[in-house]
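Next comes this protein.

***
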Amino acid sequence: MDRLASFGNDPFDKPPCRGCSSYLTEPYIKCAECGPSPFLLCLQCFTRGFEYKKHQSDHKYEIMTSDFPVLEPGWTAQEEMALLEAVMDCGFGNWLDVAYQMRTKTKEECESHYMKNFINNPLFSSTLLSLRKTKDSRFAEGAIPFKPTDDPPRPTFDSVLSRDMAGYMPARADFMEEFDNYAEWDLKDIDFVDDDSDILRALKLSVVDIYHSRLKERQRRKKIIRDHGLINLRKFQMLERCYPKEVQELYDVMRRFARVVGPIEHDKFIESHARAKVYERVKRMREDERRKRTMLCDVLQYIQDGRACQQWLSKQAAIDAGITPAVTTITVSGRRSAPPLNLTGLPGTEKLNEREKELCQVVRLVPGAYLEYKQALLNECRRQGGLRLAQARALIKIDVNKTRKIYDFLIKEGYITKA
């Protein structure tokens, strides 16, 4: 008698007898010469000498049974399999339900046998239970983890929290209803036999491939829920509330794209968009400061002009006294020319050569402003392959005479070329 593991307790899980098509019960006969698919017979058909195609009644055979001890006396192989199936169905620790499903053992016998042989067994502790998995491999498959300090939520069936958790059951580390829950129905009646034609066999294999694709999609969806922490949705929403309001709104809009990338990449994607808005705001502030600095440069050009300063002070004094000041204009003609600008101590002077210093003194332009205007004109000249005076005036927007002098100087020195 060959002591091989049998099928489960459910008789409908066993293949039918080839002789009478009845469901097999142990012990039953397996032909040792027919193959590769097993040729199985019940005891009644075997004693009648049933023959079919290549199978002959005088072939060597094996008696299939699981009525023998495996781990300890008093527990047959069939009971071992029934115990594992019951623990899988009822959950670890529910020994009363496990014993009720087995029917042949008590609650205490089930608990002590399982703890002794499957939890505290030195063979398992040295091979399976003591393996230290890395973080990535630990999260790759299996139960969706919680931190040791966290008590996983245990919602009642069909509650709001249960729906928020996508029907996840923490005690069983599984979902109440799988995605595409009836995918197995298309596969349950398929049986591969030797009589199948090539077309029928190819059709059955195609059905199996479709089923595998459904399983992959099921695992993909579980991975998304696990990696992004979507099991406890309320806890996930509380973490989002730590962000500013505009970032929360961005999370709501961009959540549909979370399935494309991992959780870290998705967070970086959200933060980069939030920082882009900050960049635009800082950029506007920088441009405002630049305009103010340009206006200050224009004011500094007249500071050493005593007559212009006197007129400006008189105008401000009249405004402060509530008197409408007389409209006066400062004309360039008929006044003495302003002295050259003193560049001592001004920022950017050390970056100028002697000819540029002379230009800044004559034009009365601070070095920092000149360097900005010069760089802007150089960039525009490179982009267009040349530059006209009208383009230079539209670009830097200062006094047209000063623009002309800067433009002519850069042309003469070879920094830019005419268009």
User: Anything to note?
Assistant: The chain has 16 helices and five strands.
